[in-house]
Amino acid sequence: MRIMFMGTPDFAVSTLEEIAKSGHELVAVVTQPDKPKGRSGKLIYTPVKEKAIELGVKVFQPNRVKDESFMDILDEVKPDLIVVVAFGQILPKRVLDYPKYGCINVHASILPKYRGSAPIQWAVIDGEKESGVTIMRMDEGVDTGDIIDIATLELDPKETGGSLFEKLSVLGGKLLADNLQNIFDEKVTFTKQDEEKATHAGMLSKDMGIINFKELDADSIERLIRGLNPWPSAFTKIAGKTLKIWDADVVENAEGAMPGTVFGITKNNFCIAAKEKAIVVNEVQLEGKKRMSAGDFMRGYNLENGTVLGE
Prior knowledge:
Helix content: 25-40%
Strand content: 25-35%
Distance between the termini: 60 Å
Number of helices: 8
Shape: elongated
Order of helices and strands: EHEEEHEHEHEEHEEHEHEEEEEEH
Radius of gyration: 23 Å
Oligomer: single chain
Strand order of the largest sheet: 5-2-1-6-7-9-10
């Protein structure tokens, strides 16, 4: 069978690799246009494009799949199935209806929970105990299509957005590979999503990383730190400079310190009071500096008990 793959970021690469070794014909890869990076403005390939070139597969990079020119690409390639993983554009109905076996999406959540663009990070931020990937038949909605299969995994107590990203990327590729032949043999069952259980995982922004010690309890802050690691990261301000917090644990606010106040300094870490309880900081990154342990940070920065962060 002829498969077209549509995807863009690192997350999509594992599924692309699984399709390439599935025994089916990978006829084309569609990814977002190259983007300029840095002061030089040099165009950078998407991770999916890099992998497609390595595999020797033809690559298309349309600005808009809604344009008529993309239909010409479909007529040229004639896919029996389109597999979509984090492509970055919404497919119009005429594209969804083009392949004989439709368009299949690999989504990084247990649908119908966490529809949208950032399901991985929100699962960590919200304190979910498990996550997973869902394969669904795409329709005109955003992650609303009928479910084909789901694979789940338990989150580690110190799970980060980055670590869960890697795990679900691999899991998604394997789940798609396990279902490909059944899709072509029309042996899969399509299950409608329960709309009453649907939730949305909105886009991430840098401002989401601002830690509000007065409004958030320590447990919420610790999850925010993990969920936004590695991007956009959780941070506060110290003496007007950004201080990213990469790793922390929840402790009691034994001294009754006001939210945002540093206390309990040791040679290896320090505590920051929150709305409820406190966090003990293990790893940080001061603006203009590299990522380092809290102990190394304090050996180069005169941090004192009573310092108020975020102001």
